[in-house]
Structures are given as structure tokens and as C-alpha cells.
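re: ur question from yesterday

yeah so i grabbed the chain u mentioned. its 91 aa long if i counted rite. heres the sequnce exactly as i have it in my notes:
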Amino acid sequence: MAVKKKIPMRKCVGCGEMKPKKELMRILRTEDDFCIDTTGKKNGRGAYLCHSVECFQKAVRNKGLERSFKQSIPQEVYDRLEKEMDTVGKG
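ran it thru and got these C-alpha cells back, copy pasting raw so excuse formatting
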């Protein structure tokens, strides 16, 4: 009898949909900075987003990332994360 492997599910903070963890991008808060965790294994608090700019913009509008991290996020951080998303998406 084959054992069915459990697929970890995470919720996108932009659109609110539950998706498999591998389909989402992890935004990471370390002690002093925010970044995109491409491996999904770095230490720190994480929030998940779909790989679309629309979901990122929804998360900015509805303050989904701020709720996840329980702190306010400066606009410069959002701008930098959006640029990082573009480079990660093309690479």
C-alpha cells in the first residue's frame, strides 16, 4: 500500500487562497530586515505570497504583511521587495 505524502499548505497574505507551500514565495522578517526567502528554510518569521504582482499589491493595500509580522512596514521596504520579486521571477 502506497503512503500518500502530506503536502504542506500555506495561505497567501494577498489573495487569501490556500495553496501548496512550493507554489508560494516566502517573505522573511529577520531581526533587522525584510527579504525574499527563495529556499524557504531561512530562520525568521515568514509570510507567504503568490508569485504575482497583483497579490503583492493586494497585500500592500490590505496590510496583509503588516498583520503577519505584527508591525508597520515602511514604504521603502515594499519598494525593495517589489524589485526583488521582479528579479526572482525572471531568474
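noticed a couple things. The chain has a mean pLDDT of 89. also The chain is about 35% helix and 20% strand.
anyway ttyl
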